[in-house]
Amino acid sequence: MATLTEQLTKIRDGLQLLIFLLQRYLKERKQKEEPIEEETEPLSEPSKNQIKIAIRSIAKEEGVDPYLAVKVAKCESNLEPNAVCFNRNGTRDRGLFQWNDFWHPEISDECAFNVQCSTRAFCKAVKDGNLDWWNASKKCWAGS
Fold this sequence. Notes:
- The chain is mainly alpha-helical.
- The protein has 6 helices and 3 strands, in the order αααβββααα.
- The chain has a domain at 48-141: Orthogonal Bundle (Lysozyme), CATH 1.10.530.
């Protein structure tokens, strides 16, 4: 059974995620500030298949193994572009490739949560010899 401290940590992490998502929503809403038309259909999130296609296309264009890029994204975020993991040390891993906001401040939230930008940053890291940045999930993506 989880200790009280573990339970409180999970609650804190959940609240941090909720606050982050709410702040992001409010920021996006404020940036748009366009009138809502009555017959406007809601924007749909891309399907996982569409995300795989985009990752493969960008990786191929960048000269990186497209199947490796998809496998890493699948292992890191389950192909969820808006995935966020709150770490115990207070940092966040963001987006498809789970860019850590402390170790990779050059990757903005806007880029981390964008399929194209995040994938291009992943490809650059791989071409620069930094595939080991994803060693924590290597058992998942390096197999079969």
